[in-house]
Structure formats: C-alpha cells, structure tokens
User: What shape does this take?
Amino acid sequence: MLFASLAVQPSADTAPPPADASGSAPEGKMSDYYLARAKRSIQLGDLEQAVSELDQLKGQVAFTVNDWKSAAKDRIAVEKALKVIKMECALLNKNMAG
Assistant: This one.
C-alpha cells in the first residue's frame, strides 16, 4: 500500500494529466502539474509566467501559495519600475552628453 501511494512529481515538460470520466483531471494531479510548471518558470527567471501558473491553482493549494504569489507580484512590479527608471536615466545621460 505504501508503494502504491508514492507518486513521481510531474516534470514541467510533461502534458497535463488526462481527464477522468467526469471530463476533468483530478485536482491534486493538476496542482502538481501547475506547481511543476511554476517551478520551471522560476528556474528560468520568469516570475510572471510562474505567477500565471499559480493563478490556476484551486482550493487549499492556492491558499498555501497565496503569500508567495503576493510577494512575487510585488517583485515583478518593482522590477518593471526599476527598468523604467534605468531607461529614464539612460535617456537623461544621453541628452546631457550632447
């Protein structure tokens, strides 16, 4: 029974789990799939994609990652603002140089 309950975590490259008789995949398997894809996006440095993957979670899993998602959204906003500030500084430097 113990070995039957063990499951291999899905890879980010695998297809989503197949639907059951009701037409939808089991929530637990879909959660694992979304978490694996979010983990892969984080490893690639794409926080926006990771947050969009986590937005698809439901139930207790969504509640659990809510704080992380909020912090990630804050970081994304800061990174965007920093990019705009750097661009403005570069434009000002170019204008002042001549």
